[in-house]
């Protein structure tokens, strides 16, 4: 996923850059791939010997005993310009700057100050996008003109630097490391100049937040036999914001899509472990390990975390190489766009920046790891009952148990039994004593009931919410809807019931 500040809509960058929404999606398997890939993820490696799709035959060469923990995350020379670009995005430009750059040479032309638009509540998102687009196109046109002028002037037999004005000279010097003969001509094409928000302030905040989790995350990855460097991926996925949620449905610090997360995590109406930084780390470790076992190298395995295992299998087979820089140059799959091509370079940049954070940011104070007690209940309880007998409010419980869904926190569903629940450190004994005194009528053997509604022609979420005396937001949460306008006739919706 292309990194954007938490208070900026992903759609803004997509519209400015003409990027397809598919470039933002986890590239899961096609219908033809599904059975084979499910078997692969479950460890049934024999699938590669008899799968009817010949694209999977090469996996017999890759599926072999591996030692993933000893990894060398050196920057490949072919990706050095990309890594340097992302280091500047993470350390030099903040989220109120829109950086214009070349998408092939990764040279930065300019940074537009958009501080008057970012984070403003008195301006609609549509109006903000229109203003941003106008500003972007104005600056984009300026550099198109400069590049076209340089392409013409530098080809003249009597070319001399004195013929260039100050801006042309600046861009000429910027391009000195590029040795291609027609570099200015190629760079002036409209789709070569792209916009990217800076991330310095959010990367710094990510360093602060990471203090809560990194020590435990490293332990989890070591237990799985994985390099601990991979625990830095959340810097580019979410900046360690546990409530991070993308427009296409990815959630949590590891930005799991729901379909992928279900392979490794508990995700249902009451619990969504994508939102739990520690449980989702266990899932991410398992996914990355499977990616490595299937693809055979960390550059491919890390890229597959963004692009999907199936997508990287296709790329390797079509390009007949497992070399990521070669795949980036050669592979033209529709979904293999800017985000996927740059994901590994972003990771390497984040790895370098975090390892040398004092150089880039000075001293950054990090949060302390949380401490808590864990209790597993044998009965279902309402969140109000649990809060009252734990002696803490619902918000404090939610902070300790981020996997609780909105339906649980709003009382539409009960806190599930047989699930480890976190309480403030030192309170376990007192809670168990209080739990034993809870009347039996407040303990339940089953989950809360719920209604179902089949969408009919003319239905809208507001109409359905009024009919069942609930809210639109509750229906959205209960059904993991990402667009309130995209319910369809015949779709079955879960309607939360108030206790």
Topology of helices and strands:
Elements: H1 10-17, H2 31-41, H3 47-50, H4 59-62, H5 80-91, E1 97-102, E2 108-113, H6 125-153, H7 166-174, H8 183-187, E3 193-197, H9 200-210, H10 214-223, H11 234-237, H12 258-261, H13 277-295, H14 298-307, H15 309-319, H16 324-330, H17 338-355, H18 357-361, E4 372-376, H19 383-390, H20 394-400, H21 406-409, E5 420-424, H22 428-435, E6 450-454, H23 461-467, H24 472-479, E7 492-496
Antiparallel strand pairs: 1-2, 1-3, 4-5, 6-7
Helix pairs in contact: 5-9, 5-17, 6-7, 10-13, 13-14, 14-15, 14-17
Key words describing this protein structure:
elongated, 499 residues, 45% helix, three-stranded antiparallel β-sheet
What does this structure look like?
The chain has 499 residues and is mainly α. It has four domains: 229 residues, Lysozyme (Orthogonal Bundle); 101 residues, no CATH class; 71 residues, no CATH class; 47 residues, LysM domain (Membrane-bound Lytic Murein Transglycosylase D, Chain A). 45% of the residues lie in helices and 7% in strands. Strands 2-1-3 form a three-stranded antiparallel sheet. A two-stranded antiparallel ribbon has the order 4-5. The chain has a two-stranded antiparallel sheet with strand order 6-7. The radius of gyration is 26 Å and the shape is elongated. It starts with 9 loop residues before the first helix and ends with a strand. 36% of the residues are buried. About 7% of the residues have low confidence.
């Amino acid at each position: 996923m292309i990194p954007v500040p938490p208070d900026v809509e992903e759609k803004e960058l997509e519209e400015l850059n003409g990027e397809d929404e598919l470039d933002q999606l986890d590239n899961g398997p096609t219908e033809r791939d599904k059975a084979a890939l499910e078997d692969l993820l479950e460890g049934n490696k024999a699938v590669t010997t008899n799968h009817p799709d010949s694209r999977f035959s090469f996996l017999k060469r890759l599926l072999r005993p591996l030692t993933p923990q000893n990894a060398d995350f050196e920057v490949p020379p072919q990706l050095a310009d990309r890594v340097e670009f992302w280091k500047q995005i993470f350390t030099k430009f903040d989220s109120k700057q829109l950086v214009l750059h070349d998408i092939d040479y990764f040279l930065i032309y300019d940074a537009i100050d958009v501080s008057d638009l970012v984070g403003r509540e008195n301006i609609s998102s549509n109006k903000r996008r229109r203003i941003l687009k106008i500003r972007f196109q104005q600056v984009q046109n300026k550099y198109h003109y400069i590049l076209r002028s340089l392409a013409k002037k530098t080809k003249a037999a009597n070319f001399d630097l004195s013929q260039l004005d100050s801006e042309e000279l600046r861009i000429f010097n910027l391009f000195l490391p590029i040795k291609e003969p027609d570099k200015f001509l190629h760079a002036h094409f409209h789709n070569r100049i792209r916009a990217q928000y800076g991330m310095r302030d959010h990367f710094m905040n990510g360093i602060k937040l990471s203090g809560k989790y990194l020590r435990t995350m490293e332990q989890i990855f070591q237990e799985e036999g994985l390099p601990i460097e991979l625990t830095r991926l959340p810097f580019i996925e979410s900046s360690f914001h546990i409530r991070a949620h993308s427009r296409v449905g990815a959630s949590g610090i590891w930005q799991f899509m729901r379909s992928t997360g279900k392979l490794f995590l508990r995700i249902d109406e009451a619990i969504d472990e994508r939102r739990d930084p520690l449980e989702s780390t266990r899932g991410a470790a398992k996914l990355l390990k499977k990616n490595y076992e299937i693809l055979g190298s960390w550059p491919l395995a890390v890229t597959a975390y963004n692009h999907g295992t199936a997508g990287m299998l296709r790329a390797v087979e079509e390009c007949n190489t497992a070399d990521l820089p070669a795949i980036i140059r050669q592979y033209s799959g529709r979904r293999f766009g800017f985000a996927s091509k740059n994901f590994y370079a972003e990771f390497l940049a984040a790895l370098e920046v975090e390892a040398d954070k004092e150089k880039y940011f000075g001293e950054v104070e990090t949060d302390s790891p949380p401490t808590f007690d864990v209790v597993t209940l044998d009965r279902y309880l309402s969140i109000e009952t649990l809060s009252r007998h734990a002696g803490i409010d619902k918000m404090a419980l939610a902070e300790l148990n981020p996997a609780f869904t909105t339906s649980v926190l709003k009382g539409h569903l009960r806190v599930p039994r047989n699930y480890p629940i976190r309480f403030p450190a030192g309170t376990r004994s007192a809670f168990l004593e209080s739990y034993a005194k809870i009347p039996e009528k407040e303990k339940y053997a089953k989950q809360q009931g719920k209604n179902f509604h089949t969408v009919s022609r003319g239905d809208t979420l507001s109409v359905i919410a009024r009919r069942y005396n609930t809210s639109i937001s509750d229906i959205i949460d209960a059904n993991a809807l990402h667009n309130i306008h995209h319910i369809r006739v015949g779709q079955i919706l879960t309607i939360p019931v108030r206790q």
